[in-house]
């Protein structure tokens, strides 16, 4: 009986222990469930991260869009570093019609006529023969140098016949100061022979005859026709070419085309004086490298104003005067061409 009671107690103890351990056994599945839940949550979050990564990807793709914002800054800096209007010639006024161009060109000529009322060829001559020879000699040198050389030449060879029979070496020695003296000697002896043999020792008064003479082109021919025979012509020398392009009268570069384009803007009767006005202005004020814009009487009409010195006092120092001045010039002080604000004033008689 005692054993039975003991066995009952041990059985009861076993049951109690079984009953107490049951919750621990039940907790294990719960832990497994919680771990599974965490994994599931992690699995759910993983796609979310991928999705967020996918959303972030466009931001990386948009990064190149920032580069255009940087490029203009660099471009602007480069533009700032470029020299101002001196390196780039200004364009003519937009929308300038043919009529407006003709009016502007003729106003420029009128202004220059007031500044240089007695403009004339700056080569000394007494007859057509001396003029054609002096013009040929003026290539690649100054008129002043030619005027210093021709008195001795014409004293020794006063007529075409005399020069045609001259000894080349003797003529070369006289012409040496003018430069290219051998080529010039050949030209003036050749044209003297042509005048003697083909034209009776007289300089012809027709363009087609003049251009046949050695060393004589259209420019020289028009100088002779306009100033020895009173026949209108346009002299397209280096000064003339530079100024008419700077004033945007034409964009042509060939002398013959420049002559035709400019001639169409003016009456034929103005051609000779126009040539003198433009050439005088190019030699004295509108220089090739440093035009004296601040002392220019046609500044208000010039599309290229600002290429040169605009300060009146500094521009005044750029004016070129030959020894003894240049007769017939009525050059006003630089301030006369500026208004109270220091800007170019309207030209006289401007409408």
Describe the structure.
Belongs to the Nth/MutY family. Residues 7-45, 65-89 have a biased composition (Low complexity). It is an enzyme of class 4 (lyase). Residues 137-284 form the HhH-GPD domain. With 351 residues, this protein is mainly α. Among the domains are: 98-118 and 234-337, Endonuclease Iii, domain 2 (Orthogonal Bundle), CATH 1.10.1670.10; 128-228, Endonuclease III, domain 1 (Orthogonal Bundle). 57% of the residues lie in helices and 0% in strands. The protein contains 14 helices and no strands. α7 crosses α8 (181-198) and α11 (238-246) packs across α13 (271-284). The model is unreliable at 16-33, 43-92, 322-340 and 342-351 (pLDDT under 50).
What shape does the CA trace take? Answer: globular
Number of strands: 0
Q: What is the average of the pLDDT values? A: 76
- Reading the helices and strands in chain order gives HHHHHHHHHHHHHH
The main β sheet shows up as:
none
Spatial extent as radius of gyration: 47 Å
Number of helices: 14
Terminal CA distance: 148 Å
Q: Do you know the CATH architecture of the domain at 98-118 and 234-337? A: Orthogonal Bundle
Portion in helices: 55-70%
Strand content: under 5%
